[in-house]
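Holo prediction — adenosine-5'-diphosphate.
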Amino acid sequence: MSFIRLTSATKTYPPQTKGAAPVVALDDVSLEIAAGEVCGVIGYSGAGKSTLLRLLNALETPTSGTVEIDGADITRFGERQLRRLRADIGMIFQQFNLFDSRTVAGNVAYPLEVAGRPRDEIRHRVAELLDFVGLTARARAYPEQLSGGQKQRVGIARALATNPRILLADEATSALDPDTTQEVLGLLRRINRELGVTIVLITHEMEVIRSLADRVVVMEHGRVIETGPVFDILSAP
Ligand code: ADP
Ligand code: ADP
């Protein structure tokens, strides 16, 4: 389990056109996410949600402010620490981002191959992960042979391969129908409760927040405009 703390995090992008003002994607965001929490982030398109996730997995560094994970400021990490950090953070996506030319097992094995794990360990771990997400029978299938829900379960198994303490989900159920969404949410709930993984999920679906999150963060124009328990925020008039 891991806790996350942003302190006055600001991210500014250079102007898109010459002479225009810089884009402030995140504007002085301070935020704490407790270890073991499921934190939902909502807000309109352009609110800064994806930028927030990219700061958490150190894909971007803030223009100013700090991003801490378990008390360590990751904006100051060197290459070695960043590699370690990336294994500690799993990520799942709206469009799944699977490798079409690799099998289900091959997709799940990928982060372990990158980490240089021994063959036997990979085989064992992949089998364990496929069992966890209920895809053992589909190990040798290719992504194009799978339903959307199955593809996202492969994405989840791959994200869990290195035993991360944090899982970041970017609109992970937005491409799925309601029944499949419930199935994926059930799996995420187990990952949180059984494995103790801290989850930060971006979504525009209120139902997803209601059914999974402990707390909600509402973003607008790069700022956190509201945060609190889901029940308090989403039942407000
Ligand atoms: P959301 O995920 O809530 O839709 P984003 O974090 O993607 O919001 O974007 C926040 C703002 O930052 C938007 O105005 C967007 O156009 C801008 N932005 C995001 N990424 C970049 C980038 N790489 N370069 C320039 N502007 C960006
Ligand atoms: P691809 O054709 O997708 O590249 P590979 O056959 O190279 O897939 O397998 C990728 C990895 O997945 C290997 O490390 C392999 O040991 C493991 N693997 C393959 N099939 C299974 C399976 N049924 N159960 C567990 N691990 C498997």
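READOUT: The pocket of adenosine-5'-diphosphate (ligand 1) is lined by residues 13, 23, 25, 43, 45-51 (CB under 6 Å).
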